[in-house]
Structures are given as structure tokens and as C-alpha cells.
Amino acid sequence: MSFIEEALAILKANDRGEFSVPTHGLYPVQFNWDSAFAALGYRHYAPQRAVREVELLLEGQWADGMVPHIIFRGDHQGYFPGPDVWSTGQPIPTSGITQPPVAGSILRQLIEGGVSVSSDRLGAMVARLDRWHDWFTRARQCPDSGAILVVHPWESGRDNLSDWDGAMAQVVPDTGLGEYRRRDLEHVDAEQRPTREEYDRYLTIVRFGRDCGWDQAHLGRNSPFRMIDPGMTAMLLRSERDLVWLQGQTGQDTAATKARIQRLEEGWRSLWNPRVKSFTSRNMSTGAFIDEVSAASFLGPYAGMVDHLGETLDHFDRFARSVDFMIPSFDPASEGFDPQRYWRGPIWHVINNRIGLGLQEIGELDRSERVRRDTARLTEKSGFSEYFDPLTGEGLGGKLFTWTASVYLDWACDGEQVAAAVAASSPVATD
To answer: What tens digit of pLDDT does each residue of 337-388 get?
Structure first.
């Protein structure tokens, strides 16, 4: 079986009909940005299935506009933390936090790639995206800078990034958590995952949200964990730009979106850290920068921002000289770098994809190609793992991963070969 055929098989195996799961066993529920990335893979053989993936994700939206990071569809029995832990009280059980808003950008990719969507259907999806993006301005935007904060490490999508350590150390673990069983350790080496102490703090923040009735404005002001995140800021900014395009396709007003873009541009610029000459995280509670460079520091071009481009590319080249595969999630020169531990160094295909697209769009073709080529090499060396060691290329975390397969099919490998493999495969519903 070729790598392309294997990627197609993984997507089909993780498809639950209208929604996908990241991988069987480890993550048996619908995740926000995992679901959006799954659509990129589906579009190659089932374009309407791709649209439905994004549509169903948006149907999990709360009345206040938030699209949660987990929607508990399908067989979620035994998943921890499950709906009973979150206790959000939503018509469809969900978590109480969000994830990086890439759905708007991916919906645009579907439409520009030729996927047909009726005007009414597209209009409804675009309206939901607008409400979600506006929710960020009310619940997660720093009033002084315009950058986006996260109220839980899981909200960032980069769950265990070393950037969060200082703020997490200030979260006092709730003594009433009791015993709990972590499903992730049944599937993945504990040495690659967050520690029990870190998990206690994660659950303490969840309990804080539950105790305030998931009042999102209150969380944004008072969560025991509040970090200003360049990753979330950049991905929202790009999705807002793509929303303007989508609104243009549907005849919807763009004025509010363009105003939000201006504010987010200010927010991105506020994350420039002159001490390390990079865009970095900040602690919302103290205002202090985190003096560390992460993969998110390279998302400026993807967000349409080229401020301090020379310094950003210098860091990129420094990373490239330090590892065999790009892009490590955390600075290889940092004491906090760990090439095998969750978000503390490993490579993730989805981050590579967004950074690579951004570099391509500003004409940095050699650097973009390095990222794309390394993404393909990792897959062809170690399969469709959740993440990869940047020094050895070893596949880590969950296996047979949906978004890894999607990114490989959609971006990392040859498009003509994908089309040929789809055409030659056994009958697949192409909608």
C-alpha cells in the first residue's frame, strides 16, 4: 500500500459518518480544529463530506457564539474528561472552552478548490463563523492590546507548551479532584504526555469554569490561567481575513470583520518581544513576556503580518540548523526543549502546514518548500503519527491520525498522485 493509499484508508477508518475523530481509541470524539483539518483530506474524494464536517462542527456552537473544542458525538463512554466533568449544560454535550479558529480558513480553501456549496448553506455557515469570531472579541481579546488570550492550555491547541509552565505553576491544584483515570495513558507512552501534576492543574481550571457556570467573560477576566497566545492571535487573524472573502461570496456585510482585523493586527504587533527579537507569549496576569521562541512565532506571514520579517526568518534558519526535520514546536536551544514530549519540541503537521502556506504566500519559497518536504519525509519515514521527533523523525503519540493523513494528502505530497490514487481506488462515495 502506498502512503497516499494509507492516508485515504486512515481518513475512512476515522470517519463516523458526519464527523471525524482524530484517531480511534485515544480521541474518540469530535475535536474542533482536528475536524476542520479533516475536511482538507475529505475534499479529495468526498467534497460534500468535507463541507458537512465543517458544517457539523459549527452546529455545536453555543448561543453566545463560541464553538467548543470538543463536541461529544458518538461513542464517548470512558473518554476523560467527559461531559460529566465539563457539565456545560449544552443541548449537545461539549467542553467549555474553544480551540484555534481555523474553520473559516479551511472553508475558504474548500470553496476556492472548487467544492460546491449552495448559497443558503454557505451563508448559514459564514454567519456562524462571524458569530464565533465576534465571540473572541468579547470573551478572549485583551482590552489593552487586541491580542487573544487563552484560559486553559487546552484552548491554545498546544496543550503542554513550555510557555505555559510559569502560569500553570501558579494554579493551585484543587484538593477535591479525587481519583480519575486518564484514557490517554492507555494508548500513549506516559513519558510523552503531561504529568499527573499537570493534569491536576488542567482539571482545576475546568472546575473553575464549571463553578462559574461557564461564564466566558468571567473566565477571560478571572481564570487562574490566562496567557496571551501568538498562535491563537495569528490563526484568528488569518481566519478573519478569510471570513471577509467568504462574506463577499455570500453578500454579507464585512465592516465589523474588517474592524476586528484592524484590532487583531495591533494585537499581533503587541506580541513583539525585543529581548528575544521574536513574537512570543505573554502572561496576562503579570504582563511579562515569555522569553522563548516557539513554532507560533513563525505564524505572522500566515496571518498576513510581515513586521520584523528579517528577525523572524533568522530564528527560522537557526531552528533549521539545529534539527533534521522542521518545524519543532519549541526552540531547540531552550532548556525547555524536549524532542519527544507533547508540544515541548515535537513537530505537528498542522502547524507545519499553516506556517508553510504563510511562507509561500510572501514568496519565501525555499523555506516553505523545506517545511513541506520535511512534512512529507516525516510521514514516509514514520507513518501517520500524531507528532514527530524533530531530531530523529520518530513518530510519537497517537497513531493513524486523521489530521496527519489530511495534511499529507492535501499539501505535503504530489497532488497529481493523490488524484490518481483516488481514481484508482475501490469505489468511494464522492458525493
So the answer is: 999 999 999 999 999 999 999 999 999 999 999 999 999 999 999 999 999 9
Q: Which of 19, 25, 37, 79 is nearest to 400 (CA)?
A: 25
Looking at the DSSP bridge assignments, the partners of residue 23 are: 27
Helix, strand, coil % over all residues of the chain, rounded to 5: 50, 5, 40
Helix axes 349-361, 32-42, angle to 10 degrees: 70
Alpha-carbon span 264 to 242, nearest angstrom: 14
Task: Name the residue among 204, 169, 224, 231 with its Cα closest to residue 81.
Answer: 204
From 310, 307, 138, 302, select the one nearest 231 (Cα to Cα).
Answer: 302
Going along the chain from its start, the domains and CATH numbers come out as 3-424 (1.50.10.10)
Using CA atoms, how far apart are residues 55 and 122, in angstroms rounded to an integer?
9
| Residue 263 grid cell | 484590532
User: Which SS3 state, helix, strand or coil, does residue 389 take?
Assistant: coil
CA distance 384 to 413: 13
The distance between the two most distant Cα atoms of the chain, rounded to a whole number of Å, is 58
H helices, E strands: number in the chain: 16, 9
CA-CA distance, 219 to 201, in Å (whole number)? 16
Q: What Cα–Cα distance (Å) separates residue 140 from each residue in 209, 236, 253?
A: 14, 11, 23
List residues with catalytic annotation: 159, 386
pTM: predicted TM-score of the whole model, two decimal places: 0.96
Q: Comparing C-alpha atoms, which of 383, 373, 386 is closest to residue 324?
A: 373
Give the residue among 349, 325, 361, 363 at the shortest CA–CA distance from 411: 349
